[in-house]
Every structure is written in structure tokens, then in C-alpha cells.
Amino acid sequence: MTTSTRGAAKTPAVLVLEDGRIFRGRAYGAVGETFGEAVFSTGMTGYQETLTDPSYHRQVVVMTAPHVGNTGVNDEDPESERIWVAGYVVRDPARMPSNWRSRRSLDDELVQQGVVGISGVDTRALTRHLRERGAMRVGIFSGEAVADDAALLARVKEAPQMVGANLSAEVATKETYVVPAIGTKKFTVAAVDLGIKGMTPHRMAERGIEVHVLPATATAEDVFAVNPDGVFFSNGPGDPATADGPVAVMQAVLTRRTPLFGICFGNQILGRALGFGTYKLKYGHRGINQPVQDRTTGKVEVTAHNHGFAVDAPLDKVSETPYGRAEVSHVCLNDQVVEGLQLLDQPAFSVQYHPEAAAGPHDAAYLFDRFVSLMEAERA
Question: From the centroid of its chain, how far is CA 280?
């Protein structure tokens, strides 16, 4: 991605999809060019959390909500230290933010971090196109980057695809760090950072867990050196078929029968560790209003999602795996995609969505309590 300084709202911009569909609008954020996978997010709020979610690395996010930036940008809500989206597409950006916590406009934040975006686009038409044709490569061009349509399309087709992309190490911490327990320490957890969001270790710390966050390249020896009561595998970007290292670490954890919890990418890693395959969804699940049923209780949750891949596991039976019996514990009610796995013969489970997020707003918070219960039972 190349960028220049902030462009005025009147600067022309062009969005080019790899199938040749073109949308024209105005520059939003930095001026220049960027490439990525075009995906859409259905959240009406939470754009700041979306932008700073490492799972969106190398993705150009289309916001289906028509008005974006109304509450500006604050310093409390980011999920990481930077914006990770490759590009940003909105219909009607706020002319002036209004919120008591706002410190600057979203436009200014995008400029400061060099994120190329486009506004004035018919995002409903673009979203319908992606739903029908599937997520695909895209480029956004503004200012001097704008050229002949055919030349821009050729450049989009040269961009790397998401299938086969190994991205976790690009967004994860390079050094181990510790998030202390809030109040009395009850447990120690080793968290493998595949693109972890800041709220995740905080949710565990609230429950008396000291969290040791390890790089995506951590080995089983690194994990066990923490002497953990439980092991956590985080969300993250890329194709789970490339994550052989984390899969091997998880298999070592399963062999040792240490309580295990995974979310999002971690769910896909558990699927692979158990012997299931993964596949790319046509356009994925992204937003904070996704209905998921916990099949162990029958409860339906409103959940936050950000995934373009899923686990290929049978919904209608218990499966035999090298680590005991496993079953699908959660399912998306929109399309019956696997949203969770659990082992029946040892303490391990995962979900495909984000329980640390405030969708619902607290529908999925119980999953951290379930993790605590597994560690309590193992200690007992």
C-alpha cells in the first residue's frame, strides 16, 4: 500500500474489483492506492473495534451501515495498537463527529495511519455484489494513483489472494508479555497470539487469570514453560490450512490434556488438530449481529464475527478423533456453518466467534466462565 497525505473530500477515487466491477467515489482517509480482499461488515456500530482488529489484516472492509464516523475516534476502544484493515469503504462519512469521548475524526485517524479509503460509494450495491459473487481481490485508487480502468484491473489481479495466506505471525506479538490478573490470581493461562484483540486477555484477567501472551511462532515447549492451568488460542487472519505450527502446538496441548479454549482462528486450529478440514466461505461472516445457537443449552446468542474460513465437521453426529469424541457445539442459524467444537472426553472447546466483544451485549461472556470451570475441575 502506498499513500500520500490527506486528500480533500472532493478528490476522485475508484474501487476496482477483480471481476471488473468498478465503483467511483471520493477519497476518504489517505490518498494513494491499496489492495486486499473485499469483505463487508454488517455492524451498525463498533467501527473503531473493526478497524483495529488484527483479523482484518489484508482486507478491504465495506461498511453496510450507511453513516460511519459519527462518534469519531477515542483512545479507549482500539483492540490493538494500530489500524489493520488494508482499506475502508463507506457511503456517507460523518462531516463532524459528536461524542463526549471523541478525540479526533475518523477521517483524520485514517490519514494519520495511512489507510486509503473511499466514500460516496453505493455500499448496498457493492455488498449485494459480494454476496452474489463472493469475496474477491480489490483495489482502491485515488489522487495520482488513478489511471486507466484496464490498467487498474490488471494491478488488482496481481495482488495476492487470501487462500494460502499465512498471516498470523505478521500481526502477532514478537515478544511474550503478561497481563496480570485483576484481584486475586486464580489461574495462569498461556495464550497463543495469532492476532489477539486487547479485550480478550482483559476478559480473562477479570476472572482472576494471569495471561501470558506468546507469539504465533511459540512452540509447545514455550507454552508448557509457563506452567499453565489452561491454554488459549486466539483469533487471527489468513488461511488456517497454512497454520501447521499452531496445529502442532495444539495437538501437544491435547495430548497433555491441559484445559484448552480457542476462538475464531483458534476454532479452525482445533478443527485441524482433530482431523477435520477447513474451507473458505463464499463471503464470510463479519459484524456484531450474527445469530448462533449453543447446541449444548439450546440458547441463541447475538454474536460478533470476523471469519472467512470455517471448519468442515459433521453437524449431525459425534465424531471419533485421535483425542476422543468431538461434536459441533455451536452453529450459525443463518447458514448452518460450524461455530464451535467441543471434546467430550477431555477439557477442550472452541467457538468461531468473538466472546470478548460486546455483541448482545453479554450473550457470549459465559464462555470465559466455561473455560474457568474446566480449569477448576482439572485442578480439583
Answer: 14
Read off the pLDDT of residues 220-249 as tens digits, 9 standing for 90 and up: 999 999 999 999 999 999 999 999 999 999
Average pLDDT over the chain reads 95
Task: Report residue 124: phi and psi, to 5°.
Answer: -65, -45
332 is catalytic: no
Backbone phi, psi, residue 133, to 5°: -100, -20
Residue 332 has pLDDT above 90, yes or no: yes
Residues whose CB falls within 8 Å of the CB of residue 313, separated by 6 or more in sequence, listed in order: 271, 274, 276, 319, 326, 328, 338, 341
Strand pairing of 187-192 and 230-233? parallel
Q: Tell me how far apart the terminal alpha carbons of the chain are, to the nearest angstrom.
A: 53
Does the annotation mark 356 as catalytic? yes
Catalytic residue of the set 212, 285, 305, 354: 354
Q: Which amino acid is at 356?
A: E
Kindly tell me the burial class for residue 351, based on how many C-beta atoms sit within 10 Å of its own C-beta (0-12, 13-18, 19 or more): buried
The tens digit of pLDDT for each residue in 73-103 reads: 999 999 999 999 999 999 999 999 999 999 9
Query: Of residues 264, 285, 301, 339, which has the active-site annotation?
Result: 264
Tell me, yes or no, if 264 is annotated catalytic. yes
Helix boundaries (H) for 234-276: 244-256, 265-273
Cis peptide, bond prior to residue 259, ω within 30 of zero:
no
Q: What is the pTM of this model?
A: 0.95
* DSSP reduced 3-state for 182: coil
